[in-house]
Write a structure and sequence with these properties.
Length: about 575
C-alpha cells in the first residue's frame, strides 16, 4: 500500500513537471498521509462523493495536484488534475484581480472612484445618495444594500451587462447604503461592466488576455462557452443524486445564465491552473517566472477585510466548543473572506454553481494554499463539509501543526462538535383539482422592470397552464386549495427545485399581478400584468420613487404560513450566498 501511494504521488509530481522545493522527509510523508486521508474520506458511507479535485501550493510551487473519484458516472471516467470544475463565486476574486490590473494603468481611477465617474451621468440607482457615492469598493465588498433578484440570476436574463447596468435604477434597497453586508451577485456583474467601460473590451476578453494567459492558465474557460462548442472532453459532470449505481445528473442548461454573470460565478478551471492562480496571489501578483502581472500593493488591498459580515461569525469554530480554533471570521475584502485558522491569517472564498461546490484557501504567512472542488451529489452541507475537512488537513500541513481530525472524525464532521444544520421544512398548500376562475384569465405577460417577464399561457392540447421566465425557467402553473394562491412548478433544467408558491392579485375582478416572496430581508417581487420590458419606459423614476415598478413591503403582505420560509427561493439564495 505504501509503495502504491509513493508511486501515485511521484506520477503526480512528474505530471506537474517541476521538483518540489519542500522536499523534507516530513513533508513527503505528510503528503502521502494526505492522499490516504482523502481516499478514506471519499469512502465514507454517510457522505458519498462523486468526484473531487485537489491542489496544494507551498513556497511558490505546486506540491500536490490530484483527482479522486469519477467525473462522469455514465462513462466511468476518472477525475485527474486537469479535469475542469466550475469554481462558482471564486470567480469574484478573478474580477477583483482583473480590476486591480486596470487600476494599475489608470491614475484617474481607484477603488473609491464613484461609479458615475466611470459609467457616466446616465447611470443611477434608485436613490440619489447611493447613485452619487457608490464606488467600485462598495460593489466588491457587498455594501450597496440592494435586492438580489436571485430568481433572475437563476433563470437567466437574455441581456448584456450594459442593460443590467441600466436596470440597476429599478433595484430596491434592502438596507441603507454602507450599513450592512448584503451579498449580491449582480453587483459583481456590474463590476465586470465597469471593467468593460474602462477599456472598451468585453469582460471575457479582458480576463483571458490580462490574467489567464499571463498566468499560463491555458485550460481555464467559462461555463457559458461549454454550451457554445467548448471542449468538454475532460469536464466534470455534476450530479443531483448519487447512491452507488443510481444517479441523476444536472442539466448543463444551468450554465446558460452564467454568460451574463461570468464576473460573479462563471469561471471553470482545474487543479493545475488553480495552483497557478493561488501562487499568483501569494506572490503579490506575479506569474511563475516572477514577472509582475498586477500591482502588488493594489492586489494586497483585495486581501484586506473591509466590511464585517455578522452572519458569517455564526459559523466560527472556536474553543472550547471545538478542539482547536478551526475558523475565525474577520470580514469581507474585495472578492475574499478574511479570517484565521489556528492563529494563521486565512484568505478564502467558496463557490457553488450548477452542482459544483468549491473552496480556495490562502495562508499568506505560510506561503501556501489549497483548492478543492466536488461535482456532487446535491446535498449542500455534506459536500461543503468535504471541502472544509480537506482544507483543515492541508492548513495543518502548511502551518506545521498536528492534525486534529482523523479518519473517523472526518466521516462524522462536523459532529461531535456541531450538529449538521437541518434543512428548513416548509409545507406547501395542497394542489386543487380546479382553478377558481377560467384558466384563460391567467394568460398574459407579467413584467418587472428589474427582474424580467413571466409569461403564462394555456396549452389547448392538454388544457394546462404553463409559465416561462428568463432563459431556462419554465414549467406548470398549478391551482391550490388556498384562494388566490398558485404553485409554480419548474420543468426542464430546474425541475429539481421545489414548487414556488405565489399570490395572484385581483383588481376589478381581473387578474392583475403575480406576487412572489423572497426570503427575508429580501422584498417580494411583483410581476405586473401587461408590463412588458420591451415597452419604452415613459418616465425616469424620480429619486426615491419607483412605485411604477416593483412594489415595496406594503404589497408583500403574504400569509406567513406560506411565505415566511419559501423553500425554493430560500434554497436558491442560500446557494448564491455561499458562493
Amino acid at each position: 500500500m505504501g509503495t502504491t501511494m509513493n508511486v501515485s504521488l511521484l506520477v503526480c509530481f512528474m505530471i506537474i513537471g517541476r521538483a518540489v522545493s519542500t522536499n523534507s522527509p516530513d513533508m513527503q510523508q505528510r503528503l502521502l498521509d494526505l492522499d490516504a486521508f482523502i481516499q478514506n474520506l471519499m469512502s465514507c458511507e454517510a457522505r458519498p462523493v462523486v468526484g473531487l479535485t485537489v491542489s496544494v501550493v507551498k513556497d511558490g510551487q505546486t506540491i500536490f495536484a490530484k483527482g479522486y473519484g469519477q467525473r462522469d458516472l455514465q462513462t466511468g471516467q476518472a477525475v485527474d488534475n486537469r479535469t475542469l470544475f466550475g469554481v462558482g463565486s471564486i470567480s469574484k476574486s478573478f474580477t477583483s484581480a482583473l480590476i486591480t490590473d486596470l487600476l494599475g494603468e489608470r491614475e484617474d481611477v481607484s477603488w473609491d472612484t464613484a461609479l458615475t465617474d466611470i459609467l457616466g451621468p446616465s447611470f443611477r440607482f434608485r436613490d440619489e445618495f447611493r447613485t452619487k457615492e457608490a464606488s467600485l469598493r462598495d460593489l466588491l465588498t457587498h455594501k450597496i444594500g440592494l435586492e438580489n433578484l436571485e430568481s433572475a440570476v437563476t433563470t437567466g436574463q437574455d441581456i448584456d451587462r450594459g442593460e443590467l447596468a441600466r436596470r440597476m435604477r429599478y433595484y430596491r434597497p434592502v438596507y441603507p447604503f454602507r450599513t450592512r453586508f448584503h451579498y449580491n451577485n449582480a453587483m459583481y456583474t456590474l463590476a465586470g461592466h465597469v471593467a468593460e467601460n474602462l477599456t472598451g473590451t468585453p469582460y471575457e476578453t479582458l480576463l483571458r488576455e490580462r490574467l489567464l494567459q499571463p498566468l499560463g492558465m491555458d485550460d481555464t474557460v467559462y461555463l457559458a462557452e461549454l454550451l457554445e462548442g467548448g471542449d468538454v472532453s475532460n469536464f466534470a459532470q455534476t450530479y443531483l443524486t448519487y447512491n452507488g449505481s443510481q444517479f441523476e445528473a444536472y442539466s448543463r442548461e444551468e450554465f446558460r445564465p452564467l454568460k451574463l454573470h461570468l464576473p460573479a460565478g462563471g469561471v471553470v478551471s482545474n487543479a493545475l491552473d488553480m495552483a497557478r492562480y493561488m501562487n499568483f496571489h501569494l506572490s503579490g501578483g506575479r506569474d511563475e517566472a516572477g514577472r509582475m502581472v498586477v500591482p502588488e500593493d493594489t492586489l494586497r488591498q483585495t486581501h484586506t477585510a473591509d466590511f464585517n459580515d455578522p452572519a458569517s461569525n455564526a459559523n466560527d469554530k472556536l474553543e472550547p466548543d471545538w478542539p482547536v480554533e478551526a475558523g475565525v471570521t474577520q470580514g469581507y475584502g474585495l472578492g475574499w473572506r478574511i479570517g484565521a485558522y489556528r492563529g494563521y491569517r486565512r484568505v478564502q472564498h467558496g463557490g457553488i454553481v450548477a452542482g459544483f461546490v468549491s473552496l480556495l484557501s490562502l495562508f499568506p504567512a505560510a506561503a501556501g494554499g489549497v483548492f478543492t472542488s466536488v461535482n456532487g451529489p446535491k446535498n449542500m452541507f455534506d459536500i461543503r463539509d468535504i471541502n472544509d475537512i480537506i482544507h483543515s488537513q492541508v492548513g495543518d500541513i502548511l502551518t506545521g501543526k498536528d492534525h486534529w481530525l482523523n479518519s473517523t472524525t472526518a466521516c462524522t464532521y462536523p459532529e461531535p462538535w456541531r450538529t449538521s444544520p437541518e434543512t428548513d421544512s416548509f409545507v406547501l398548500p395542497e394542489i386543487s383539482d380546479n382553478f377558481p376562475r377560467d384558466k384563460r384569465d391567467y394568460e398574459g405577460v407579467y413584467g418587472n422592470r428589474a427582474g424580467g417577464n413571466v409569461t403564462i399561457s394555456l396549452n389547448t392540447t392538454d388544457n394546462k397552464l404553463y409559465f416561462s421566465l428568463g432563459l431556462i425557467g419554465y414549467g406548470l402553473i398549478l391551482p391550490t386549495v388556498v384562494d388566490n394562491y398558485i404553485l409554480i412548478r419548474c420543468q426542464g433544467p430546474l425541475a429539481h427545485l421545489d414548487a414556488i408558491p405565489a399570490n395572484i392579485e385581483v383588481k376589478d375582478g381581473k387578474v392583475f399581478s403575480l406576487l412572489v416572496a423572497m426570503e427575508p430581508p429580501e422584498p417580494a417581487i411583483l410581476f405586473e400584468r401587461g408590463l412588458k420590458l420591451t415597452d419604452l419606459d415613459p418616465t425616469e423614476p424620480k429619486w426615491d420613487d419607483c412605485t411604477n415598478v416593483s412594489s415595496g413591503a406594503s404589497k408583500a403582505a403574504f400569509s406567513s404560513n406560506y411565505f415566511t420560509l419559501l423553500f425554493f427561493l430560500a434554497y436558491v439564495i442560500y446557494v448564491i450566498m455561499m458562493m
